[in-house]
Amino acid sequence: MDLRDDPNTIHKLSKKQQEPVTFADGVWVAQKIGAQAYLECSAKSGERVQNVFETAAKVALQLQSP
Fold first, then answer.
1. Each residue of 23-42: pLDDT tens digit?
2. Reported pTM
3. d(Cα 6, Cα 2) in Å, to the nearest integer?
4. What is the residue extent of each domain of the chain?
5. CB neighbours of residue 59 within 10 Å
C-alpha cells in the first residue's frame, strides 16, 4: 500500500523486472488460497491496521462457532 506508489521502491523493483503487487493481485491470491478476507494496511502510517486486527478477530470467532 505505502510502497506501491513509492518511486524508490518502484525503481528498485524495476531493476529486477518486477512491480508492486496490485490490490487486484492480492484479491486474486486470497481467493486462490481460500482466504476469508484480503485486507491492506500501512504499518508506516497506521492506516487500516485496526481494521486488519478487527477482521482477523471476527473471522477467528466465526470459524470457532458451530
1. 999 999 999 999 999 999 99
2. 0.78
3. 7
4. 22-66
5. 13
Q: What Rg value do the Cα atoms of the chain yield, rounded?
A: 15
Give the number of C-alpha atoms closer than 13 A to the C-alpha of residue 55, restricted to the C-beta side.
Answer: 12
Q: Nearest-CA neighbor of 22 among 38, 1, 44, 41?
A: 1
Report the candidate in 4, 38, 36, 9 with the shortest Cα–Cα distance to residue 21. 4
Residues in the chain: 66
Looking at residue 5, the DSSP 8-state letter turns out to be: G
pLDDT at residue 32 in the model? 98
Cell, residue 59? 473471522
